[in-house]
Input
Amino acid sequence: MLERLRSIVQKVNAARDLQSALDIIVHQVRLALDTQVCSVYLLDKDINAHVLMASDGLKKESVGHVSLEAGEGLVGLVAKHAEPINLQDASLHPNFHYLKDTGEENYHSFLGVPIIHHRSVLGVLVVQHEERRRFDESEEAFLITLSAQLSGVIAHAEATGAVEGVSPSGHKTSDTVFPGVSGSSGAAIGEAVVVFPHADLSQIPQRGTRDIEGEIEFFNSCLELVRQDMRSLHAKLSGQVAEEELQLFDVYVRMLDDAALGNEIVERIRMGYWAQGSLAYVANEHVRAFEEMDDPYLSERAIDIKDLCARILFYLQEKVVVETEYADNTILISEEITPSMLAEVPESKLKGLVSVKGSGNSHVAILARTMGIPTVMGALDLPYTQLHGKEIIIDGYKGEVITNPSDQIRTRFLETIQEQNQLDKGLEGLKDLPCETADHHRVHLWVNTGLMTDVIRSLDQGAEGIGLFRTEVPFLLAERFPSEEEQYQIYREQLEAFAPKLVTMRTLDIGGDKSLPYFPIEEANPFLGWRGIRVTLDHPEIFTAQIHAMLRASVGLDNLQIMLPMISNVNEVTSALQLIKREYRELIQEGVKVKFPPVGVMIELPAAVYQTRALAKLVDFISVGSNDLTQYLLAVDRNNPRVANLYSAFHPAVLSALQQVVNAAQAEGKHVSICGEMAGDPGAAILLMAMGYDVLSMNAASLLKVKSVLRNITLAVAEELLENVMQLDDAQMVRSAVDLALYNAGVDRLLRSSRTN
Ligand code: PEP
Ligand code: MG
Output
């Protein structure tokens, strides 16, 4: 059975579009279960009906024409309850609705299972038989398993159609919403620019070319280079490997012939597509065809095609650096946006970001928030390779991408964008005002930085200090460990720009999702593995070079603070302190006039929450990393979009941990700040202030928003709100209570999470 399942799923996966996927499903399932009918009904939201999309057994003419209103018939019942229905005689069921013109009157037994993707029912898979017999348990289980496995493929195929503007049953459609999670708030309308990592055939977007003949010539020259490679490989290996294996190279050369693969690619270029996209398209077609074959030898040949095409791609990408043209209103899209992809877009042209992978607390989202770019993360179902050049809307508040926008929705979003701009202008007046509540409680707003550009932006927003300088950012952008002198320059620049305000430099926090290309860490559970202080204590040479550079950079400015990430026990702190002291003594001995900086610990792990007092005794300040703390307390990977809905800093367990940390730090008379992303959420900032946090450190783009909200509220109201929400037992209820308080305080709708538009 398992083999059968695998083979069907593989065949369906290889289908080129929704209709062929469904045709394969009905045919294969009918054979596998040896029934007389197998059909698929899909919900077409545009007409709110389940349309008979494919059938093997019912009359062909009815396919695509017959439909049941949502909730109607047995199909409607299966979809409504999201549960299978297995009947010996369907016509006896009160919900039975006879579908004229299908020929189903001949069939009695009925088994329908829902097709569910991400909790929503896409449609129903039905098998029917003449005989009056219930399908047995194993048949039912088979169909349920198959449906679960196919739902993703069907959803993807449907989505691809929606991007082209057609609903499953062929109606014209617009405003298709693809859900993700918010990476950075704000709305944007723009032109999709799809970027991709090189040398990956599956991610090459379909783009046009203006110079067809030039593109063909270029493609042919690359093809010739691959042919030469094959010949020289053949020559090099002859005598070393068996003759049959050598024949592979001849096969490759023949496949490249003008009459074969090469010709198909040229034909595609002639249709106006660029060479890389044409290659990817033709390669995928062939790979599919091979994978679909039942013969294991032949289906394995798909690998040869992939290999060969990857070689051509190598030359296509090697010879010319693809200059991506960025539209004036670029919405950058990629399977996984990297900081360097971001950096390549001229800032004035970048209006929005969409990353298919990752979630709201991935580091690229943090970067986007710092830049104030509306961002959607984890849009898993978005057929992004089809979007290049198309107009799309992103709603960074809700975390949604909208394709094929109608005039109506475009107008609504243009209004929101206008409102956004007005709000930003209004906030500018707050830059030089203190962050003080209406009843004169002073809160300090600091910023999180990574690059020098963040520093400039932060000063411009009236930041009072740097609460977190992620020193790993320059490390991530380099090609090797920056030398001590290079680090000195980077640190000096940040300290000088902010002096005399304090700058909190966190020691290198790599591991988890931040791996350096030149120092790869391969682990099964990177977030529970070699990360942050664990790496740097194991590599004291890296740690001490960094400390040395930081201390040197602070000479004469004396505005440095050092902070230790990922601390899980007191020994890590004492070991790190020893190393810091050693570097300090060395510099003093060399006659350098350096001041010993305040040292702090990040509370990011549940263990550290319970040990805050013990840790606070050893250091000068405590800073909560709520991004990781939320991840570890709730056991929710901060990068995984599938569980992003479970990730909430408003979870009562997180709030209670945050309160516990303040109490413990205060009991030791130590300053306590928070530098996780929640500090930049106006609603959360109110609660954190009420808990007693002295410093809220956030991305620069949030600073004035938080200031405006805190200046609008009193500490007394905030404390009352905190007291109330601490009684609640659910994150969503906490969020609602906070939003209500913001609403009552007259806070602009764009600063509330429950904004309605
Ligand atoms: C945190 O975990 O909250 C934090 C500030 O560190 P980072 O996001 O860099 O892991
Ligand atoms: Mg962290």
Observations:
- The chain has a mean pLDDT of 90.
- The chain has four domains: 2-163, 176-195+325-410, 201-319, 435-750.
